[in-house]
């Protein structure tokens, strides 16, 4: 599975006008479908929603800057490990991220877009998990 970066950018552009609704939907989806991860998060999510939105924007902006992207993801992975995130939590987050993007992208969402986001999320989660595991060893 490979990612078409132009599809990542165009589908994210379709989602961007929805702003904070996107992250609210994401967390609602995540906690509804995977309630076991709820204790990993603060009771109030306003700041966390803003950080997620900023991280998604940074991810899309740096798709071709492998060095910057890898560094950002490794830092996130280490921080998330410190919060108690485990490798088994990442698939739940990926499922909720894809569901959220699909919901807000509308007609911009196609099977090829989903394949690209799934591939990108695989790299994201692999990088973050590896960094988190390395930091706790």
Automatic annotation (TrEMBL):
Globin domain mapped to chain residues: 1-133
Gene3D superfamilies for this protein: Globins (1.10.490.10)
Keyword presence, Heme: yes
SUPFAM superfamilies: Globin-like (SSF46458)
Keywords: Heme, Iron, Metal-binding, Oxygen transport, Transport
Similarity-based family: Belongs to the globin family.
Record's protein name: Globin family protein
Native source species: Streptomyces carpinensis
């Amino acid at each position: 599975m490979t990612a078409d970066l132009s599809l990542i950018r165009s589908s994210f552009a379709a989602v961007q006008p929805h702003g904070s609704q996107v992250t609210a939907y994401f967390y609602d989806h995540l906690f509804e479908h995977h309630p076991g991860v709820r204790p990993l998060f603060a009771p109030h999510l306003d700041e966390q929603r803003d950080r997620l939105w900023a991280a998604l924007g940074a991810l899309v902006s740096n798709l071709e800057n492998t060095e910057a992207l890898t560094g950002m993801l490794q830092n996130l992975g280490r921080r998330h490990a410190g919060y108690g995130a485990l490798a088994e939590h990442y698939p739940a987050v990926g499922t909720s991220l894809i569901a959220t993007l699909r919901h807000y992208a509308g007609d911009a969402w196609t099977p090829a877009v989903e394949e690209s986001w799934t591939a990108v999320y695989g790299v994201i989660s692999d990088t973050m998990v590896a960094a988190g595991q390395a930091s706790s060893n």
